[in-house]
Amino acid sequence: MQARKKYVLLGLCTCCWLLLFYWGGLQERLLALLTRRRGEVVRPWPDWLDRALLPGYAENAELQNGGGPGESPRQRRQAWASIYKNSHCRMDTCFDFGRCRGRDGFRVYVYPPEKGDRVSESYRKILASVAESRYYTSDPREACLFVLGIDTLDRDQLSTQFVPNVDERIRGYPLWNDGRNHVIFNLYSGTWPNYTEDLGFNVGQAILAKASLNTEHFRPGFDVSIPLFSKDHPQKGGERGWLLRNTVPPRRKYLLMFKGKRYLTGIGSDTRNALHHIHNGKDIVSLTTCKHGKDWEKHKDARCDHDNQEYERFDYQELLHNSTFCLVPRGRRLGSFRFLESLQAACIPVLLSNGWELPFSDVIQWNQAVIEGDERLLLQVPSTVRAVGVDRVLALRQRTQMLWEAYFSSVDKIVLTTLEIIKDRVYAHISRNKFMWNALPGGLVVLPEYSTHLAHYPFYYLNLGISPGQEFTAVIHAVSPLVSQSQPIMKLLQVVSKSKYCSQIIILWNSEKPPPHRSKWPPMPVPLVVTDGRRKVSTSSRFLPHVTIETEAVLSLDEDTVLLTSEVNFAFHVWQSFPERIVGYPPRSHFWDPVKKIWGYTSKWTNEYSIVLTGAAFYHRYYHYLFSHYLPPSLRALVDRTSNCEDILMNFLVSSVTHLPPIKVAQRKQYKDMPGPQSTNMAPWATPEHFNQRQDCVNTFASWFGYMPLVHSQLRLDPVLFKDHVSVLRKKYKDLERA
């Protein structure tokens, strides 16, 4: 009986508790409805959070609606759907692959600008990058991809760069086809107060290459997120990153920094208004100013004067150079100029921009270079970055430099990365993998048409833990007719063929006369292949990717090169340790002439060099493919027109890929690339005209690359015991000293 009463009492208590909960919650909801009808604002913050403790935050209503009219997620989706009616586009549904499968492959056509069109400097750079790329075509019938001539970068209707009536104009293009196979570049979309992603015209089925893309609106595998860059961003080349090799210690003077605008109202103000809470003036410097815009004084708050005063105390560049982490909060839009500035400075970006689809996110693994924070958890950022270990700090900083130099240092690289990502989607069966995009030297110089296997590229050997092959192919460039058995090429064949590492010899016959019969060539222990190149006589043909080259190592030789077999063997051993570089004998150098303000070229024998001539040098066969398919036809045409500079251009190419100098090896003292005293006729390469051409080539090549990729070096590798006062019998390459 006692137990029964206990259970009944427990049941009654439970029922009473449920009734109180139900009626209490119902009354609270009714009260909320009544107060909303009376026009009162419902306090959205929890009761425990007193706004007096956070005086720098924006008003509650602004925090909820971003400074504009309140929009629910459904309303935002409906607005997006009305702007982009093809929000579900994918390559399979909104792209015509048939245009890319013809003989011409991946070609890009740029619509010619119409008379009177206003084109911003940034868009002019984008169009120039496309026009100078290896994919450009002036014939729309050959095109796989189309780029508008209309400037679509700035779609803010309040901007002076805004171009009206874009919808009407693009619909008049006969090739528009609802945007199919078109790519639209955009940096700024929407306008005050909401800054939506409205471009002001229907993009149809076009691919968007857009900055500040929201993850909700990003179409994976179709759109391309690009970085926000300023009008001063260089067209080509760009500055190198600021991180010195093996910088120790990896941490800098300041742990975390930010210096930028503070928005008093509107979208983006909630994040930047709160940044002063983490500022301590010691290792964390977070500075904002409201002193921007025409009427900032009308809207300034109680904190403005103090913030402005503190803001002037620190120099931005000094902070950037001396900070380990850089805050990158959103501005009016999700992207910010601070992002690229931080990457270049090797200041690890700490992102506070919820919903931002990071640039080139399809291919770049950003977790290896940035720290993604949450705008709502700003106060946790200091403890988060303090917890990052020293090893990870160094790894993150090194990754920022790799990404900056590979994809972001110039408009040219940003545009080419966009095109390469689209190309990989079109030809998915021969595309780059994530490792190629995220490892040195970057995806732009890895051409998957050559191979999709990492082991076939020289710059991946170290990461893969593999060694290059044990044999090489000698390629001899012959331009003189064979009239005597005592010509230098005959002795060269004997010397090279005696090397135990020589797999075969290829003679690239570029003489005007037909190549001699096989019986005219001396017998050799290795196969000899004579390739008749008379039908396409050109200086650059020596670097064509000949299918007969089966080894990884290529020994490039001029027909009059004088070497010993031991010299060849030693140079090959050195190349095996540095397979990504050019390894050879005759050095040259470049220098900057401050008077003429041009680059100079010198053949003087000094202790410093930046070029190793390919008349006697080893390199990887991939550079043949890169020379023929990566460099623009204009540079190869210059080489063929002058019959000069092909060796300099190859050095430019390899150094631009590796960011390293070539390697010079020991050679006999009397071997010089100079005419002998018995020569009566000056060799063509020894004339003043030839030398002047090479000087002009250096400046032309530097102009195309956008910077000087050649790197000086004072390193020369000698055999062990070379020139040492010991018995010659103890030396492996004794012939190098006897000659």
From TrEMBL:
* GO BP annotations listed: heparan sulfate proteoglycan biosynthetic process; ossification
- Tell me where in or outside the cell this protein is found: Endoplasmic reticulum membrane
Domain Exostosin GT47, by residue range, is 104-387
This protein is called Exostosin GT47 domain-containing protein
Function according to Swiss-Prot or TrEMBL:
Glycosyltransferase required for the biosynthesis of heparan-sulfate.
Q: Name one GO cellular component term.
A: endoplasmic reticulum membrane
Q: Which cofactors is this protein said to need?
A: Mn(2+)
Q: Per its UniProt record, what InterPro entries does this chain match?
A: Exostosin, Exostosin_GT47, GT64_dom, Nucleotide-diphossugar_trans
Pfam families given in the database record: Exostosin_GT47, Glyco_transf_64
Q: Catalyses which reaction? A: 3-O-{[(1->4)-beta-D-GlcA-(1->4)-alpha-D-GlcNAc](n)-(1->4)-beta-D-GlcA-(1->3)-beta-D-Gal-(1->3)-beta-D-Gal-(1->4)-beta-D-Xyl}-L-seryl-[protein] + UDP-N-acetyl-alpha-D-glucosamine = 3-O-{alpha-D-GlcNAc-[(1->4)-beta-D-GlcA-(1->4)-alpha-D-GlcNAc](n)-(1->4)-beta-D-GlcA-(1->3)-beta-D-Gal-(1->3)-beta-D-Gal-(1->4)-beta-D-Xyl}-L-seryl-[protein] + UDP + H(+); 3-O-{alpha-D-GlcNAc-[(1->4)-beta-D-GlcA-(1->4)-alpha-D-GlcNAc](n)-(1->4)-beta-D-GlcA-(1->3)-beta-D-Gal-(1->3)-beta-D-Gal-(1->4)-beta-D-Xyl}-L-seryl-[protein] + UDP-alpha-D-glucuronate = 3-O-{[(1->4)-beta-D-GlcA-(1->4)-alpha-D-GlcNAc](n+1)-(1->4)-beta-D-GlcA-(1->3)-beta-D-Gal-(1->3)-beta-D-Gal-(1->4)-beta-D-Xyl}-L-seryl-[protein] + UDP + H(+)
Q: Which domain of life is it from?
A: Eukaryota
